[in-house]
Write a structure and sequence with these properties.
heterodimer, A: about 250 residues, globular, B: about 260 residues, alpha/beta, six-stranded mixed β-sheet, four-stranded antiparallel β-sheet, about 25% strand
Chain lengths: ~250, ~260
Amino acid sequence: MRSRWEPVQVGLFFATLVAAWEAGVRAFQVKEYLLPPPSAVALELWQSRWLLLQHGLITLNETVLGFLAGAVGGVLLAVGIFCSPLARRTVYPLVVALQSVPKAAVAPLLVVWFGFGLLSKVVMSFLIAFFPIVISALGGLMSTPENLLEHLRAHRATWWDTFWRLRVPSALPSFVDGCKVAMPLAVIGAVIGEFVGSNEGLGNQIMLASGTGRTPLVFAALAAVTLLSLLLFAVVELLGGLVWWRSRA
Amino acid sequence: MSPAPAGAAGPAPAIAVRGLSKVFAGRGTHVRALDNVSADIGAREFVSVLGPSGCGKSTLMRIIAGLIPYERGEVLVTGGPVTGPRPEIGVVFQTANLLPWLTVVGNLRLGAELRKLPRDVIGGKVDPMLKLLGLEGFERAYPHELSGGMQQRVALGQALMLNPSILLMDEPFGALDALTRDRMNLELLRMWEAQRQTVFFVTHSIAEAIFLSDRILVMTARPGRILQEIPVDLPRPRDPKATRGSREFGEYVVRLSELMGVFG
């Protein structure tokens, strides 16, 4: 049951965690470059806000492009695999096999191929976001309720009508779920790309700050990445609300 | 109005089933769903198929609907062999099968749109259909906002929008509560008495079959066979109170119950 105390409980829980962190760091006199207290992180967040915003926008750009490429490419591939039994036997196992390749290990190669600029991060982000979208879109297309398919068959529906008027709408809830998985992954992809080879973006800032012992900035940049990820997830959640029949089907 | 003569000589029957057998073969399974089933259903006749669960009555309906293939026997609809879903047939299933993302009007139009009827013709039928079904005011409602009875009404309306000469119904009210079911039976009867399509109605309810039908085909289970054909000689138009309360109705109930082994 939701009570009006619920937000208070949640707030208290997190406040206690932060307070324990602050108290622990002070009590044991932990060095700031090892673990900064939350107050130092908060101060750094404020002082470096323009820096974080500037680099955050770069990471945002990479992530959104990578995600959109993953969504479009993933849906196209899913439709292709769905329509062609040959692709289902050949391309699909290939996609699954490629998913087992650790993407982070490919990142240096991407820098060699696509350079230090925007493209290598977008490709990294795309590679990670792509898979859940293919799987969810394909799963959605393949799991159209049998009774509805029969119903449309009784109405002499064409393949095309069955696809657009039944299969696609009934696949959308699953596709939205895939997007919810893919969005945070797209952020991770962009950050990994920045780790490996870049001179801007939040991932790059994390590398720089940790290399120079500015651990509070590392934490502040981490907080910025998290915030970015949450914001993008909220956008997907909001757009996913357009597929309101997800729980009614 | 009197019931149409059953299987009498005259124009070709709307539905003719001759020596139909159907086997479902799976991995290591071999289920005889229908065994040498023959039946004629006359034009404008209301025929119910009554039988226990798993007797193959739904399979029979699906074969006539052109939804599943058959290997042995012959199935003719308005004189032509059934090789797939036919244009003059409307089907109502046990589940309403409404699309959750379409409104009542969208669902009513769906069948006619899929069958490529002209848009203006479809548009002209929506309002009278809403009125006929008592769904005025629910035009923009979505299926999940409707009761089970109303959903099934939309499903029936979707089929009626096609002006089908033949209506196949597979336990259309089977999932409804008893009260709603009785009311839907009456509404269906009124519509049929006005429009007189050929109706092939699958049910496992004895009372429903008697109340609605001109003739009842009683089926046995595994393999599905037609055990007996019972003409229902009750006057029309039928009325819930007068018809169900009559002595003849009671006699039909007893006779069919005996046939179906209800009394053990």
